[in-house]
């Protein structure tokens, strides 16, 4: 469904991505892992067209999207739930959800997706008139995921949804991801939480300083000595 | 005495409503794009000359001119943004658009110079069917032009307010003003929103130009004067807030008339400037402003 072919990205003189390749098939949950500064967020931003691609190509359903602008990629169904939630702080929860469905194709399915979001996160329904900035971290993350779902994604990319949240909330969010994946949504999950992510993913990629280092089946990676050594401190 | 000040209050409110409409475009432009438009007053001046000639040469009703100047100025704003400002903004990426600020300042000066050459240095007062007519309400006199202008001004500002709050495009504008990168991730076409916002900002300038010309003479010094008034109103009302702008406009109108009546026009300008400085120092978020960020 989505394929990155050897992408290179610079910030000024600094090479941040040095040939990342990855592929996500329809219906999968793929985990993209790596430590701080590895280039995970930059990869996501590049898929969204927020950075300048120096080399390589990005294919969506076989078609190159590297020359499309960000909003055109969103209209194709490529949607991100950004790192650190990034809700519109002065808008209500409800308006944040509406803005998520700004694209014409998402607007057409607004009512249906709104029902889905409130069913997945009943808390958001209770809080719908509250300003986004006044909610707790966990509620904000739920709102950010719901806002992304309102964009009617074909592939949903989540950048560190567990960041700064208590284990119970993280568990709930991961359960929700599995649930929406079962409904047919393809997911790219960017995480530092290696164990929990590989538990729900079918495959995983580990990147380090802008390069692929390990990839494979999630179950195999969970038991791989290399992964354990490098990331689980065992 | 009391009668004199009540009259000043009435005049101030009527004038202030129109001031608010002048300033609201500046506020929108700053709120959505962080552009401080120094050419705001000069563009208003140009739109006032346009109305003057539409009224004087073509004999079009001055209030009907709002539609024409509104549309013309929308196009001017849209095209300015598309072919100049946006190109500069993109180059500056996420920083405050300093080059745009410098550019608008140059544009303002250039327009003022052009006006001097083309229209001459004297003030032009449009003659309309409403000029000089007024309503007598007890001891008070209400100028007909100011009253009609006030009503149209307030209605336009309220329409803009509901447009921003309630429509898809308006919501996209608020989203862009809060975080332009995340707004793009919502599928918002940033360039489009910027062009529309500048178009609407200038449409409000066009409308208020026609409202002003019904009672206010135009000359090439109008630009600087109204840029300054608009900055005070925007700061007073809280940058980017439309309702704040309306309130700020009324406050400025009333202060101007009060101190104008008590002392003279120069004094009222000094008082306004002092108020401006005090607000910047002690309540930079404006009189209505909550602590943001
Ligand atoms: N706007 C920027 N300008 C310059 N360098 C940047 C910029 N954004 C990121 N970088 C650098 O690029 C590298 C990769 O950053 P990135 O945010 O992609 O890492 P990450 O894997 O998402 O890390 P984290 O887990 O901390 O979120 C880092 O070394 C970072 O300092
Ligand atoms: Mg990151």
Helices, strands, pairings?
The complex is a heterodimer of chains A (234) and B (293).
Chain A: E1 2-11, E2 14-24, E3 29-33, H1 40-47, E4 53-60, E5 63-64, H2 70-75, E6 78-81, H3 93-100, H4 104-108, H5 110-120, H6 122-126, H7 137-150, E7 155-159, H8 167-182, E8 186-191, H9 194-200, E9 203-208, E10 211-217, H10 218-223, H11 225-232
Parallel strand pairs in A: 3-8, 3-9, 6-7, 7-8
Antiparallel strand pairs in A: 1-2, 1-4, 4-5, 9-10
Helix pairs in contact in A: 3-7, 5-7
Chain B: H1 2-33, H2 40-56, H3 65-92, H4 98-119, E1 134-137, E2 140-143, H5 144-166, H6 168-178, H7 180-185, H8 190-213, H9 222-237, H10 242-262, H11 265-282
Antiparallel strand pairs in B: 1-2
Helix pairs in contact in B: 1-5, 1-8, 1-9, 1-10, 2-3, 2-4, 2-8, 2-9, 3-4, 3-8, 5-6, 5-8, 6-8, 9-10, 9-11, 10-11
Bound molecules: adenosine-5'-triphosphate and magnesium ion (MG).
What is this structure, in a nutshell?
Chain A is an alpha/beta fold and 234 residues long. Helices cover 40% and strands 27% of the residues of chain A.
Description:
The complex is a heterodimer of chains A (234) and B (293). By secondary structure, chain A is an alpha/beta fold. Helix content of chain A is 40%, strand content 27%. A six-stranded mixed β-sheet of chain A has the order 6-7-8-3-9-10, with helices on both faces. Chain A has a four-stranded antiparallel β-sheet with strand order 2-1-4-5, covered by helices on one side. In chain A, helix 8 links the parallel strand 7 (155-159) and strand 8. The longest helix of chain A is centred in the last third of the chain and has 16 residues, at 167-182. The mean pLDDT of chain A is 91. Helix content of chain B is 74%, strand content 3%. In chain B, helix 3 runs antiparallel to helix 4 and helix 6 crosses helix 8. In chain B, strands 1-2 form a two-stranded antiparallel ribbon. Chain B has one domain (15-110, 148-282). The chains are: A alpha/beta (234), B mainly alpha (293). Chain A binds chain B through residues 48, 50, 69-71, 74-75, 79-80, 82, 86, 88-91, 95, 98-100, 102-103, 106-107, 147, 151, and chain B through 168, 171-172, 174-175, 178-179, 181-190, 292. Magnesium ion is lined by residues 40-41, 83, 159-160 of chain A.
